[in-house]
Amino acid sequence: MKGIQNVLIVSLGLMLVSCSPNTPLETSLTAMTFNIRLNLPSDGDNAWPNRKEMAASMIRYNAPDIFGVQEAFLGQVNDLAQRLPGYNWIGVGRDDGKQAGEYMAIFYLKGRLELLREDTFWLNEHPESPGLGWDAAYNRVVTWGQFKDLKTGESFYHFNTHFDNRGEVARQESARLLLSKIQTIAGAVPFILTGDFNTHPDSEPYRILTASDLLIDTKTISQTPHHGPSRTMNNFDLESLKTTEPPIDYIFVSNQFGILKHATLSDTFDGFFPSDHMPVISLLKY
To answer: pTM of the predicted model, to two decimals?
Structure first.
C-alpha cells in the first residue's frame, strides 16, 4: 500500500511540474483568407449590399485571429470594420497607394495582436511604386504587417496578396518577387501568407512558391484532414459545389508553424453565398 502511495505522490508531482506557469504551452492562432468580391452593381442579387452581412457573419462566427481579404474597395473594408469592432486593419488602395482601387487589407484581432509595423509593395518590376507588372491586366500588391502576439510576446509577419488573373508571366514573376521580399522583410521570423493566387497546385507559380522550402501550403500538412470542398471558387453557383476543382486561394506558412486544422468554408445563407470565393481557414500552432 505504501508503494502505491509513493507512486501516486510522484505522479502528482510530475503533473504539477508539467502544469507549472513557467512551462511553455503550445499556442494556437487562427488565420483566414477571403476574397470578398468587389462591389459591382451588375452582380444584381449577389451585389455587395446584399452580401456584406453574410460576409461579416462568416468572419464573426469563425473568429480568426488574423485574416486577409482580396478585391475589397475602401467602402467594403469599412463595412467589415463597422461590423467587426474587435478588429483593426491595415492596407492601401492598389492603384495609388492611398485609397484608389482594391485593398489587400489585413484585419487583426486587437485584443490578441499588436501591430508593430506595416507596408505595401507592388508586384511589378518597380515594387515600391504603383503600376502594372509584366503581362498583368491589373495592378497587384502585397500588404504586410509585423504583429506581436500578446499571449506569447513573440512576433510574426502576415503577407496578403492577389495574383493577376490573366498574366501567366505575371503570376510566375510575382511568385519569385514575393519570395524575395518575404526573405528580405521577415528574415528568420515566422510568417503567414494568404491570398487569391489565381493558380492551381499543379501550376508553375505554385511550384515556384512551394519548391523554395521557404513556405508550406497549410492544407498539405494539416494534422486533421481538410474539411470542405476542394475548390475555393463558387461563382455564386450552388451547383458548383457538386463538382471537383482545384483551389486558387491558399494559406501558406513558414516552417515554424504546425497546422492543426484546415478548411474551405462553403456556408450559404438561404441559398446565397457571401462571395464568389469561399473563405479558407487554418488553425496554426507554434
So the answer is: 0.91
Q: How far apart are CA 34 and CA 267, in angstroms?
A: 13
CA atoms within 13 A on the CB side of 223: 7
Residues 6+ positions from 19 with CB-CB distance below 8 Å: none
Domain boundaries, the chain: 27-285
Crossing angle of the two packed helices 74-83 and 48-62, in degrees rounded to 10: 50
Cβ contacts of 82 within 8 Å, gap of 6 or more:
none
Q: Is the pLDDT of residue 12 over 80?
A: no
Would the pLDDT of 63 be above 90? yes
Q: How far apart are CA 239 and CA 242, in angstroms?
A: 6
* Domain with residues 27-285, CATH architecture: 4-Layer Sandwich (3.60)
Question: Can you say how many angstroms the Cα of residue 56 is from the centroid of all Cα atoms in its chain?
Answer: 16
- Please give the Cα distance from 231 to 245 (Å, whole number): 5
Q: 89-114 pLDDT, tens per residue?
A: 999 999 999 999 999 999 999 999 99
Q: What is the pLDDT of residue 26?
A: 66
Task: Please return the burial class of 96, using the count of CB atoms within 10 Å of its CB with bins 0-12, 13-18 and 19+.
Answer: exposed
**Is the pLDDT score of 69 beyond 50?**
yes
